[in-house]
Amino acid sequence: MGAKYQQFHQRSISDPEGFWGEQSGLIHWNKPFSRVLDYSRPPFAKWFVGGETNLCYNAVDRHLKDRPDQNALIFISTETDTEKAYSFRELHAEVNRCAAMMQGLGVCKGDRVLIYMPMIAEACFAILACARIGAIHSVVFGGFASHSLANRIDDAKPKLIISADAGSRVGKVVSYKPLLDEAISLSKFPPKHVVLVNRGLDKTMERTAGRDLDWEELRTKHMNAQVPCVWLESNEPSYILYTSGTTGLPKGVQRDVGGHAVALAASMKHIYCGNAGETYFSTSDIGWVVGHSYIIYGPLIAGMATIMYEGTPVRPDGGILWKIVEKYKVSVMFSAPTAIRVLKKQDPAFLKKYDLSTLKFLFLAGEPLDQPTAQWISEGLGRPIIDNYWQTETGWPILANPMGVEDIPRKFGSPGFPMYGYNVKLLHESTSEEVGTDEKGVVAIVPPLPPGCMSTVWGNDERFVKTYFETIPGKMVYSTFDWGIRDKDGYYFILGRTDDVINVAGHRLGTREIEEAISSNPAVAEVAVIGVADQLKGQVPVAFAVVKDPAQIASREGRMKLEGEVMKTVDLQLGAIGRPARVHFVTILPKTRSGKVLRRSIQAICEGRDPGDLTTIEDVSALQQVRDALAGKA
Ligand code: AMP
What we know:
This protein is of the alpha/beta class.
């Protein structure tokens, strides 16, 4: 690790109050804090206690003086052929209109607003408007279907939902409203109002009188609104973002205000090197944490223009991302390895077709970055490709290359080193001791977690402590649930999850959630879902199901029909994002004598590896059924 960075990191660990006290100057405080850190109730960390600030003020208002006419938000949709740029002044006006409409509907500080929207500018206005008035936003990824959405509504209990008639994917209209209506009807806590952006994509959109309101009508009503920022104590909640774990019920990751703003501002400086006046382009979606941190808040807090892109990397052709870089003079780009693997199949000439001279770095995160992909894009672009490793829970990188502090030589396949503020340890899963060089251990963080990391699980402090801080025997440390190793030069490598979470094209899914969706199909008695390695997406879910009536799958036609039906069940409940690549049918699942499904063995067989220790298996023939199913014999 570079000596300069080592010193920087060391200081953040040995003197967190001094270090973060300095970083706090990167944002505006309405009232100064009295203490940098209150860690009197471990593992709950309170940062910048007593300080008052506002995320929307830092992202928008603060820039009105120096850069009112500079682009702030650039919305590009290759799906609808739309492009519109908003200056900071225009963004401010739109956010004020939206904040006024929310207040007009009775939304106050601390109320939740659920945002279920495609990648359109209004989604950004809604997020920032919540921040402005102290409402807590809960953005739900537009690819989730009614059942997932209903779970999130019931947990967050929003007063208001903001949505749209439809999104568009690969030229196909994807209606949001029917899924939303279904979710609301399933929910125990339906919202009082739904505000709908009508893009004119779904002409059949139905509205519920008294509940559903039109965005444009409300916007016009509040055209000249000026809504003051509500100053919040640093530790008050700013947002909830649900993420998958080992149980079927996703956890609401809760983030604060002050620590969040400081952490993102610091990361823009020390990691991403994004400067005011430049353009940041993240290809993520606002439904994911990358979208929250590095489409909305991070770049705007830094005074950069940010791009919201509705479209794929290959439409209208494989040069679209680079065309955007050229047109908007993008300096920092953030994407996922999957997108690059998709581009690898395109004509490499696209990488040379556009003027990319403004581009300084390409950051990639969300899933392991394999060496061939890293090498391909690195050579093609001739720019540093920076792998960074983090999670919804942390909100910003745990491991990366701190480009703003020191450009340390990179090794393909490694996301680099622990970032400042993170006291990372690799611990043996049962002894909890630190493992040695090149030995596999659980990636753990010694608390307090730095600013910007989750403050708790929404409404459930106990679940926060139990889930994250009590899984490593005898030690109160935060578990990332990832395996990692560190080589002799101090470079870290991430080896995959320790739990039943899988990563499909950079999207995190709990196998339990998919299993629950499949089990709701009346034909299915039992099911196991595992993640199987995939060249393009990293992993794909594959299901092995036991049916109630074996006659249904006696023929090949019967099996194919049922497979299609099971996939449809998942589409309707979870969304196509959770749809298994295959559903195989068996009469029993491989289990231990105590009844635990041997997922790792099933996964190993699917990936052509040795199934491992089988001494506890109840019925060995179950594994043969898995093999037969894969060979198409069942
Ligand atoms: P999410 O919370 O959806 O962002 O997913 C976080 C998980 O994605 C991590 O716990 C890792 O398993 C995986 N992940 C994220 N970034 C990387 C990376 N750069 N390399 C390897 N795995 C990653």
